[in-house]
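Here is one chain, start to finish.
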Amino acid sequence: MTKASTAFPAHSTDAVAPNTALSTGLPSVAPSDTDTGCPVPTVRNDGPGGLVGEWRDLLARHAAVSCALEKDLQREHHIGLSEFETLDRLVDASCDSYRMSDLAHDIHLSQSALSRTVARLERDGLVDRTLCTEDRRAIYVCLTDKGRAVHTAAAPTHRDVLERTLH
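Its structure:
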């Protein structure tokens, strides 16, 4: 027989609406769009200026758009949002190679997260990695023809999701 913990008393939620925090009455989790399962931005006015509300709205909108992009890109092209963003930056750079540290900064990923993303893209033949001849510590990422083709196919999906979620 297990002894119940008394460290946190139980609370009744009978009178509280779903997705509402007990102490504040504010939404605790953004409701989900039933079609996508992605969070839907909610509006909060916290007084003059509403800076906290604006910040939370921005975060919720970013989460909703990112979730929709991730789902559609995975479903239709078998790549994630980080992979698409990496390919997109390589295409936009219009050069033979992109330094990994610059790429990580530009797409707001940690060096570690970008390394994992590039490893997946390299495994799938979408990019190549090369060492810098002047500085053997620097690594460059190069888009392959296959990577360019995957980007070309996925770009309309990316644009459609942005149109749908941002307008």
